[in-house]
Design a protein that fits this description.
Layout: H1 3-6, H2 19-41, H3 43-50, H4 54-70, H5 72-81, H6 87-104, H7 108-135, H8 141-170, H9 179-205, H10 219-255, H11 259-287, H12 289-298, H13 301-306, H14 312-326, H15 329-340, H16 345-373, H17 376-383
Helix pairs in contact: 2-7, 2-8, 2-9, 4-7, 4-16, 5-7, 5-16, 6-7, 6-9, 7-8, 7-16, 8-11, 8-15, 10-11, 10-15, 10-16, 10-17, 11-12, 11-14, 11-15, 12-15, 15-16, 16-17
Length: 406
């Protein structure tokens, strides 16, 4: 049974790849991650206003990271067993309430509660949104995951910029304006939930639970492959944490750039990172996820290894190439993992998105500590070896799931 046959009779549901749904989910991902990226940008203001210590700032980060990462696999597992089409919109309401609470919080505990609510909203959003993206893929799962993920990358890039323009000049209460973004996302997700419910009803009417055949690999091979993918996430997001958190400091320290000039350079890397995410989707569907994963992470190694030793121009060129190449891995990794466990799409997406957030936070803290002990230049020399871990992708089995036939 192909997807086009499966969804006939419902004019509200696009046949084949449902691009309208994918771009709506991608837009909501942009809004969600934009809101999340505002929180770290608020730290200097909170520290000055309330006299917080660095330890208290660290606790705020910890609570936010825990609620936005650790809960995701459990939310995804529940969604796999009991799909809730309108949970996406409800989850964004948690984010909305959290933003309003953060805008008017007047003590440390209220701030912790506010960021926990925002983190819970993110935990609900990512696993279910990944399920929707795969359902709307029309079989082009890497492309669908890339469209979804590129929205998040875009949101992460523009969030600090908006914070600098809105929150920093006007103070803590200006965070409330971002509640409008959460409200818009909630309304869009309500529409997605309606489409999602129609799809679930149609699947139920056809007595089908899966669009794709289950993975036939032995359990030991599946576990080994998942372990390799986790190592890939570690390699990718530890390196990316160093770039996003400390690339500007590296450029200022080595080349004497101004803060503003270094921010433009970081934006070039982040823009290439977003473009690479979309590129990986096209390549993954065309050539296979394993080869995109191998190329994406291991292929970036020659550029990362020479980056700390180049002049300014070539440092920027290699950083852009690195962002373009290494970013293509994530959508391929998530889709490959869900191909291994096709009946647990939500749980797998929750695990890998949770790892993405968690490892990014740990990597940033680790490289910050290491930079204090050594130097900015040293942590770049160390981090640029991480993509070489991509060589273990050679041991991934080559899986190409077949669609179920009637």
């Amino acid at each position: 049974m192909n997807i086009k046959t499966l969804i006939k009779g419902h004019p509200q549901i696009s046949e084949g790849t449902a691009y309208a749904i994918l771009f709506t989910i991608g837009t909501c991902h942009l809004l969600n991650d934009m809101i999340q990226s505002v929180i770290p940008a608020l730290y200097p203001l909170l520290k000055d206003s309330f006299g917080f210590s660095f330890a208290q700032i660290g606790i705020i980060t910890l609570i936010f990271q825990l609620t936005s990462s650790i809960f995701q696999p459990f939310v995804g597992l529940y969604a796999d067993r009991h799909p809730q089409p309108y949970s996406l919109s409800l989850g964004m309401c948690f984010t909305l309430v959290g933003l309003l609470a953060l805008a008017f919080a007047f003590n440390f505990l209220l701030i912790l509660l506010a960021v926990a609510l925002i983190g819970c909203g993110s935990s609900v959003f990512h696993p279910e949104a990944s399920r929707v993206a795969q359902m709307a893929s029309g079989g082009r799962k890497s492309l669908a995951q890339s469209i979804f993920q590129v929205g998040g990358n875009g949101g992460s890039a523009i969030g600090p910029l908006l914070a600098a323009l809105i929150v920093i000049p006007y103070g803590q209460h200006a965070v409330g304006w971002f509640a409008l973004a959460a409200l818009l996302a909630s309304l869009l997700l309500a529409r997605v939930g309606y489409w999602y419910s129609l799809m679930l009803n149609d699947l139920k009417a056809h007595h089908r639970k899966r669009i794709f055949a289950p993975c036939n690999l032995p359990g030991k091979t599946v576990r080994m492959a998942l372990g390799i993918l986790v190592l890939m996430i570690f390699s990718k997001y530890f390196f990316n944490a160093c770039m996003t958190s400390y690339f500007t400091f590296f450029l200022i320290d080595k080349f004497g750039l101004t803060v503003q000039q270094s921010q433009f350079c970081l934006f070039a890397y982040l823009a290439a990172f977003a473009a690479g995410t979309l590129l990986g989707g096209f390549l993954g569907d065309r050539y296979g996820r394993k080869y995109v994963i191998l190329f994406s992470i291991l292929g970036a190694a020659p550029f990362t290894l020479v980056m700390p030793y180049l002049n300014l121009f070539w440092t920027l060129v290699t950083s852009v190439i690195t962002g373009l190449v290494i970013a293509s891995a994530f959508s391929a990794i998530v889709v490959y993992a869900t191909d291994l466990k096709p009946d647990k799409v939500g749980m797998i997406a929750g695990i890998f998105f949770g790892l993405m957030f968690g490892l990014g936070g740990i990597g940033s803290a680790f490289f910050g500590w290491l930079a204090d002990q050594t130097s900015i230049n040293f942590i770049f020399q160390v981090s640029t070896w991480l993509p070489l871990l991509g060589v273990v992708a050679l041991f991934l089995p080559d899986i190409r799931p077949q669609k179920i036939k009637e």
